[in-house]
Amino acid sequence: MPGSRTAHVVCSHDCPDSCAILVTIDESGVATRVQGDPDHSVTRGFLCGKVAKYLDRVYSPSRLLYPMRRRAGAPKGRMPPGREADAFERISWDEALDIITERLGLIAREHGPESILPYSYAGTMGVLGYGSMDRRFFHRLGASQLDRTICATAGADAFISVYGTKLGTDPEHFRHARYIIAWAANIHGNNVHLWPFVEEARHQGARLVVIDPFRTRTARVADWHIPIQPGTDAALALGLMHVIIKEELYDRDYVAQHTHGFEALREHVAPYTPEHVSCLTGIAAADVTRLAREYATSAPAVIRLNYGVQRSQNGGAAARAVCMLPALIGAWKQLGGGLQLSTGGAFKFNTEALERPDLMLASPLQRPARIVNMSRLGHALTELDEPAVKALFVYNSNPAAIAPNQNAVVRGLMRSDLFTVVHEQFFTDTTDYADIVLPATTFLEHKDFQGAYGHYFLQLSEQAIAPLGEARSNVWLFSQLGQRMRFPEPCFHDSVDELIEQALEAPAMEDITRQELEAKRSIRLQSAGNGDLLPFAKGVFATPSGKAEFYSSALAAEGLEPLPAFHPPDESRRGADAHTFPLEFLPRKADHYMNSTFANLPGHQKMESPGLVFMHASDAAARQIGEAELVEIYNARGKMQLRARIDGSVPAGVVAASLNWNKLSEGGNNVNALTSERLTDLGRGATFYSTLVEVRKLTPTKNLFPPID
Ligand code: SF4
Fold this sequence. Notes:
The chain contains 25 helices and 27 strands.
């Protein structure tokens, strides 16, 4: 089109693919098209269904366009979709910033600055939007630090305990694999840019095996789906190692040269016979043996491990055990072999410069602030004291929907003495409890840069269009707040370009400059142990022993198990409460939403069909539940309403439902009404997939908030 231009942006949603996107902008500055960059070797010219329609989201009539405060007398609490604005009145940015700085200052003086709690995660994966000026602001304020554990810390700690650095098989190398295990990885659903490489490998004869309790889209098209019982992955991985060692299928050279603790491992896995593992996992003993043999003898073999495995009480041990498999068979040596959990360890930016933790020493505390675990927000808002949380500042997140133990979270958010600020793109479940709502930009409306956790490209994300309405970026917001607080440090005046330059001042960034990044837009990193594109082939391990560690002395020193073992989660069919709540619950991510993002968009709702609980026919029959009937799914923490879907997606004893917004769910609660604040064995992470429930048929009642058409 004459007069139009193209901008290069990066999808900043919490997805391993970090797609390169070309945005067409017309003469009037309106974005008219988004498309995957055809020149990017991982994006390969296409986008997922979620983002292919991204302009519907950017220009949605529901976007928040100006700051608002709660009207006098308007109570906090859930509002029906489309009516949220009734509780708020428009204010200017000046007023909003003044109110926030005044209230935070008052709360800090009266209760101590640690009574202020930031709450954010990966609603934007842009480096600056995720964590830069915001961290500076809260550090200088002396606010509580947030332990960002809700997604991946158990798996990250597990991988690092074995290999020292979070690197993995390059996605483009999957095309060379001959045996691919998707372990809790719905590649076809939510890692779609890996899928073409998997397909390429399969055309060359590779087998695809899916290990997942749910029959995902990937499982449906796999060569072999193994429906493991939830939370038992450690047992299966240990059983595979048992067979591989017993049958001498391991790589003697690699194990001798590059691993530590093999003899201890050999002894440790001896009890995990296929028969024993079968009892623990629900997988036939013959299948355990077959999987071990096929995996160990079909080189190159690669595992795509995803984060579902580690969101269980035993999840750290499970991830450790799975991560050890490629070291045992020497798969890292081969192009197309190895394992990918995350490639995020390649992107070691200068976070000290970006986040300035030293500013805590200049705060009124004059020391590092306390750390509050985001996976225990309900506890933080209802029980934590000395000091109690008096102000909550939410950005890049929707905790009323995504945090576990939701009823405790909501009780906390309802507190009249809690001052809550939410920086958001739309009204959400969380804005229903806000005192101040601030409009946020989407990734088309601000400049940032980004790494990835599913490939090795560093990318620039240009500002494609002007912010909608009065929407502002995280960097702008916290820079303004820092200045308005009259913090004397010049770092609160740093520009976006200066922040990018500071972040790139790190050895892992290979002397890449902002100017070079702006010119090339996408640069493949070559270092970080990835120089020969086989990260652990030659045994470069940043572990205490300098080798891949089957046995971890570091974990032993912390009082943790040095070798991964299977322990049934407290909330599992082997747990004490199983007689009251006999069904294991999988609160899954929706295929067409990104956590809670996109759930409010009609086009995405049509793709997703939310509001279903997947049941096994035997479990449904035992409760006289038929297809599409309304049921209540409940435990001691809460309940929700769903429609039964009995289609063979789950094994007996397991039920599954996907994350939605509360206000868009039948009955007004989502899956996190049922999940607990119990933490993982490693990494202090959330244990969404260790949840027991019961289900009963429900007489239909009037919906509290019917879904949008
Ligand atoms: S959500 Fe993932 S697959 Fe979709 S466009 Fe963004 S990065 Fe790509």
